[in-house]
Amino acid sequence: MKKKMLMALAAFGLAQPAAAQVSDNVVRIGVLNDQSGLYADLAGPGSTLAAQMAVEDFGGSVLGKPVEIVSGDHQNKPDIASSLARRWIDNERVDAIVDIPHSASALAVLGVAREKNKALLLSGPAYVEFTGKECSPITVHWTYDSYAMANGTAGAVVKQGGNSWFFLTGDNAGSHSQERDAMAFVKKAGGQVNGAIRHPLNTADFSSFLLQAQQSKAKVIGLANAGGDTVNAIKQANEFGVTQQGQKLAGLLMFITDVKSVGLPNAKGLVITDSFYWDADERTRAWSRKFMARHNGRAPTSVQAGVYGATLHYLKAIKEAGTDDGAKVVAKMKEMPVNDFFSDNYKIRADGRLVRDMYLLQVKTPEESKEPWDLFKILARIPGNEAYRPMSESACPLIK
């Protein structure tokens, strides 16, 4: 009888869920991005705010433990990014890192996160190989990538008659990825590539690069860059009469903050692809109005909206997994459908790609705009399974 009782108690114990485990009794999430440079408008303090809003909406704690947000500026330098990530994890007990626009910096942090088994939730970088050869059990690529952006924009512009392209490309991993993917889609749509030139990150003078683009006689200048570089390239293209002489510009990674900086007179008619627009529907408007009230009236970018969604889903996964162990939480994130104010039952694939619908957007004319951030009209909604690179074409080692 005693033996049977012991066996029954043992079986009962095995049937119980494991005790919740939160390291250091606090869940800390680090928002790492450019806080003061050319990507500060599209991410920066706005991403930190978005993460804080997600924590507040979740209730401020998980598994009975408080959730804290910390933030840091990687200055678009991989060595600073990796050093800060390591300090956060080793000394400040950070459990997850989110955002990281600037793909080279994100790649540097990926090495640290793999080593330390910490979740890495990428909203900002475009580099498609985060779900390819660089995929990892602790990584989710949340908001967009260069493949999906190029897929929408290049195909649409070629259909509009822009069948010859010259690329103005930032000299960094994410921009190289934009260029490569866009070239492939231009050719797939029946267009041709007349050439490309690469410029340094955060360059102030695009005159020589634009001159070569003009000399190429291409109908379209593809801007394979982001943030301040995209803004400066568009402004200078208008100053030098590039668009007035018949060449079109195509932004391959362009955000609402970039359009605001350029201004509708210079940006009108531009076609871009993005995963989020604040004015898309009632839910996006409701959340965005709350964000704008706390961010000096500035509308959220897709990067900032993605930081909110990634942070919220991460906290949900900790609750379900009963732990903040990086690989276990990311595995749970992949099991669970993604639902937030701009995500409806989306799924995270085995390679870490969140497959979400994308929008094909066109910049409005000044006459069409009814309020300060009424900048886009939606031309089409592209289903996620059509927008992103299929896993069959990926070199991700996690795919079996």
Secondary structure elements and pairings:
Elements: H1 2-15, E1 27-33, H2 44-58, E2 61-62, E3 65-73, H3 78-91, E4 96-99, H4 103-116, E5 119-122, E6 139-141, H5 146-159, E7 164-170, H6 173-188, E8 192-199, H7 207-215, E9 220-224, H8 227-239, E10 248-251, H9 256-262, H10 264-267, E11 271-274, H11 282-294, H12 302-321, H13 326-335, E12 338-340, E13 343-348, E14 354-355, E15 358-363, E16 376-382, H14 384-387
Parallel strand pairs: 1-3, 1-4, 4-5, 5-6, 7-8, 7-9, 9-10
Antiparallel strand pairs: 2-3, 11-15, 12-13, 13-14, 15-16
Could you characterize what this model shows?
The chain is an alpha/beta fold and about 400 residues long. It folds into 2 domains: about 25-145 and about 280-355, Rossmann fold (3-Layer(aba) Sandwich); about 145-275 and about 360-385, Response regulator (Rossmann fold, 3-Layer(aba) Sandwich). Helices cover about 40% and strands about 20% of the residues. It contains 14 helices and 16 strands. It has helices spanning about 1-15, 45-60, 80-90, 105-115, 145-160, 175-190, 205-215, 225-240, 255-260, 265, 280-295, 300-320, 325-335, 385, and strands spanning about 25-35, 60, 65-75, 95-100, 120, 140, 165-170, 190-200, 220-225, 250, 270-275, 340, 345-350, 355, 360-365, 375-380. The strands form 4 sheets. Strands 2-3-1-4-5-6 form a 6-stranded mixed sheet, with helices on both faces. Strands 8-7-9-10 form a 4-stranded parallel sheet, sandwiched between helices. β9, α8 (about 225-240) and β10 (about 250) form a beta-alpha-beta unit.
